[in-house]
Amino acid sequence: MAYVRFFNALGQGGYIRAGDFDVYGTGELVPDYNETYSVVDSDTVLATGSFNGGAYWYGGYIDDIGYTNTYELDSAYLFDAALNDLVWLYDINVRFDIRDDFSAGVSFSNMYSGNDTFIGNRYADYIEAGKGNDLVKGYGGRDVLKGQAGKDILKGGNGDDVIRGGKGRDKEFGGKGEDTFKFNTGDDVSIIKDFDARGTSHDVIDLSGLKSVKGWSDLKNNHMERDGADVVIDGGNGDVIIINDVTLNSLDKGDFLF
């Protein structure tokens, strides 16, 4: 069974829960209070309207938030959830107050291993893909996009986004805004397609989780080199960052976090 989680705290966003309502074939749902939804086989779900209270999935366990909170859910689509999944959020507006420290926006994670597509909205989204070859789009807002194993494509869109490809050979696009590309030891290969090092406000690459690099001097002298039109950072043991269409002279200490 495929589980898809949308999560919001303290503001605007959207949330579809996986749990106790199965949809077979193609159908349309108008949610009622205290309902949860999951998708089986190759189904299409359209959920619109509002519902109240109940329990929600968060981090693999159920937490009860009571019956006094009001949820508004609009235009949440799940498609072909067994294998090649599509999630589409558009102008979802959910308001509820729970004990969590996420900013306003949508958060959802895929707990299965198909080749999936995740599309956020104009709010601050948290999207964590699964283990397949996934496409993740954040659109507007300060999004956090994370891949896992597989050849993922992550696109931040507008806003100051945080992007981490995870394991596998991933392609990363920050889009507009001051984006942070995060790379940790064991993340394999990340290809940054649109790194912008110009001006006082620009993108940065966060290497604080890459244990083999000890700072700017170590990076410049021992790990970073030009390869044609690109710059390559070699962290050892298969950890590689390829920065497309950037020169060595355009990069300095201010482009990195250690």
Question: Could you walk me through the main structural features you see in this protein, from its secondary elements to its overall organization?
Answer:
The protein has one helix spanning 216-223; strands at residues 22-23, 38-39, 44-52, 55-58, 61-64, 70-79, 86-89, 107-109, 117-119, 126-128, 135-137, 144-146, 153-155, 162-164, 169-173, 180-184, 189-192, 204-209, 224-227, 230-236, 239-243, 256-257. It has 2 domains: 1-98, no CATH class; 113-258, 2 Solenoid (Alkaline Protease, subunit P, domain 1). β4 and β5 form a beta hairpin. By secondary structure, it is mainly beta. The radius of gyration is 20 Å and the shape is globular. It has 1 helix and 22 strands. The protein has an 11-stranded mixed sheet with strand order 3-6-7-9-11-13-15-17-21-20-19. It has a 7-stranded parallel sheet with strand order 8-10-12-14-16-18-22, with no helix packed on it. A two-stranded parallel sheet has the order 1-2.
Return the domain count: 2
Give the overall shape. Answer: globular
Please outline the major beta sheet: 11 strands, mixed
Rg result = 20 Å
Terminal residue distance: 40 Å
CATH topology of the largest domain: Alkaline Protease, subunit P, domain 1
CATH architecture of the largest domain: 2 Solenoid
Count of β-strands:
22
| Helix-strand pattern | EEEEEEEEEEEEEEEEEEHEEEE
The CATH homology group name of the largest domain:
Serralysin-like metalloprotease, C-terminal
Helix content: under 10%
Strand order of the largest sheet: 3-6-7-9-11-13-15-17-21-20-19
Overall average residue pLDDT: 65
Specify the number of helices: 1
Strand content: 35-45%
CATH class of the largest domain: Mainly Beta
Q: Low-confidence parts lasting 5 or more residues at pLDDT below 50?
A: 1-112
Structural class: mainly beta
